[in-house]
Amino acid sequence: MSKPADKVIISCAVTGSVHTPAMSPYLPLTPDDIAQQAIEAAEAGAAILHLHARDPADGRPTPDPRVFDRFVPRIRDATDAVINITTGGSTRMTLEERLAYPLRARPEMCSLNMGSMNFSIHPAARKIKEWKYDWEKPYVEGMEDLIFRNTFRDIKQVLKVLGDDCGTRFEFECYDLGHLYNLAHFVDEGLVKGPLFIQSIFGILGGMGPDPENLVVMRTTADRLFGRDNYRFSVLGAGRHQMPLLTMAAVMGGNVRVGLEDSLYLGKGQLAKSCAEQVRKIRRILEELSLEVATPDEARAMLGLKGRDAVTI
Q1: Cis peptide leading into 4, omega within 30 of 0?
Q2: Is the CB of residue 63 less than 8 Å from the CB of residue 97?
Q3: How far apart (Å, rounded) are the C-alpha atoms in residues 53 and 228?
Q4: Which element (helix H / strand E) includes 74?
């Protein structure tokens, strides 16, 4: 069991590649938007900032390092938060595209999806009455016939070129029970060493549902596979499931992730105006539960990160 004195790491996923501009006027799209929301989230208590990039012209997801360079250094200079760069990108990006900026930045942390999956939000297209840009509708509807690819060889390559060669550690994104076993395979092969940071994800179509029982199954399975002292458990609840599942995770000794990548809402029918609003809400819940929030340096120590001085960005 996690030690009672452990603090809770709040991660914030600022923009992602799933939601589109028509879904919320508050979704950060430009480098200025992303930088501002990330900095505000860090000030509100997020120890880790999980970052994607978007084309500033129309908000579509982009892997372009030149766009990342317009906001990542600004965030680094304004905060001491751990910068976590996606290697997931989007379902339409190749592995080479997804790795382009992480290999350049050599960050302390990157996300790593632990398997291929039918990742989709295509039913959401039926709820949108008016699209802001021409790319949005085919992008969302097209997810119905796309697979997010991360084969065992893909994962092995990421572990080598980012983990071994760059000293980057990973937020292991597990969308299903089998993803924990995929991670255990790489641990058994000696390609991954602890402490592990396991991000269990609930509520994405194609992955595990948001049932509270599934959170218990993921937690107990991770205990069996890795031993509770050898990993840090974190939870991401998609959409309306965000705050209830995060509260449950915290009570179970886990860490939490918020942000407009994961949910556009602050409460029922209430759009979040910023990522910082979600950070402040979950922080308030944690503190009401008498749980302490980890600082960035405390998170670095808990996760065995190399430190911001070893990052090239």
Answers
A1: no
A2: yes
A3: 34
A4: helix 72-78
Kindly report the pTM of this predicted structure: 0.96
Q: What is the tens place of the pLDDT at every residue in 54-110?
A: 999 999 999 999 999 999 999 999 999 999 999 999 999 999 999 999 999 999 999
By CB atoms closer than 10 A (0-12, 13-18, 19+), residue 189 is exposed
10-310 fold = TIM Barrel (3.20.20)
Break the chain into its structural domains and give their ranges: 10-310
Helix, coil or strand: residue 84: strand
* Residue 262 · residue 13 · CB < 8 Å: yes
CA-based nearest residue to 133, from 57, 192, 207: 57
Question: What is the torsion angle, in degrees rounded to the nearest 10, for the CA atoms of residue 162, residue 166, residue 169 and residue 172?
Answer: 0
Please state, in angstroms and as integers, the Cα–Cα distance from residue 148 to each residue in 25, 195, 218, 223, 302, following that order.
Answer: 27, 26, 21, 27, 30
Question: Average pLDDT in the 184-191 region?
Answer: 98
CB 237 within 8 A of CB 230: no
Sorted by sequence, the CB contacts under 8 Å of residue 233 that are 6+ apart come out as 2, 198, 200, 219, 222, 249, 252, 253, 254, 255
Using CA atoms, how far residue 150 sits from 116, 231, 238, 243, in Å, is 5, 22, 21, 28
User: What is the CA 23 to chain-centroid distance, rounded?
Assistant: 19
Cross-strand pairs, 201: 236
**Are 51 and 83 contacting, i.e. CB atoms less than 8 angstroms apart?**
yes
Q: d(Cα 197, Cα 188) in Å, to the nearest integer?
A: 16
In angstroms, the CA 129 to CA 134 distance is 13
Is residue 262 within 8 Å of residue 237, measured between CB atoms? Answer: yes
User: How much is the pLDDT for 313?
Assistant: 80
Q: Is 173 in contact with 199 (CB distance < 8 Å)?
A: yes
Alpha helices by DSSP H, listed for 133-289, are 136-141, 152-158, 165-166, 177-188, 212-226, 242-251, 275-288
Buried b (16+ CB within 10 A) or exposed e, 111-129: bbbbbebbbbbeebbeeee
